[in-house]
User: Fold this.
Amino acid sequence: MRFTGSDGLNLWASRHGEDTAPPVLLLHGGGQTRHAWSDTAIALADAGYCAFSLDARGHGESDWSREGDYSARALAADLSAVIRSLPARPVIVGASMGGLTALLTLGEDASLDCEALVLVDVAPRLEPRGVRRIIEFMRHHQDGFETLEQVRDAITAYNPRRPPSKDLSGLRKNLRQHSNGRFYWHWDPAFLNHANAPTKAGSMFDRARLELAARQLDVPVLLIRGYYSDVLSDRGATELLTLIPEARYVVLEQAGHMVAGDRNSVFTEAVLQFLKERPAATEPESCRTAATEQHHETPLS
Assistant:
């Protein structure tokens, strides 16, 4: 299905579940596509929600910005337009770039009505080294890949904790194949003009602005962090909990920054449990939980 974002851009999404069910809007990270949420979206639909997984501007099937504008301002304007077009107040689940976009958008615009916010491995304070590693990975492969096996090997090198994919056909959803036969990531290379590591000199998302937005949030919040994440540290998570004292905090073992992909079923269980228990979120003793996942070792994607 199609949404209309800022500047009239077409933003494409997949929907799982009945359109009359409570909506959940899933926002992927930079360099990903809506297909990163496939398993979670199906599980949410099975649990009685209507899950919309959205391709951000310049990613997947959504339009590329003619001006190459992938700024935080543009992403927030897109999200605002999508929220206003949904049939009911959504829960928003945002990973990495998607989480920062949601945090900024909801914190700065009190007129946007949402049920809850789930932040996936992201907070105003990020670790420059981890962010830089993502950006270097994205820059390194701009010349594309000759085979899907090369794509698989590149992903495995970046995230060695996740077993290599045996079904290479699934990788094609995140790739474009040009007339020269080579495979390229399914995002606009101009996105890299905005993506940079969080430093004092500035970044795609300004830390001070994110902190102010976090203080102004007026929705239940769940923060999920991957134990092995090199992007969000426990220090960064703790600082967010200081900004949002009522937020809940869950740490998933056997997961890095790509939390949903590394431990999908357990991640989805944590989201569903949070949605189920939201009415109790104002009770002082249950406001913040630091749960550590120690479930089975079966690889999940």
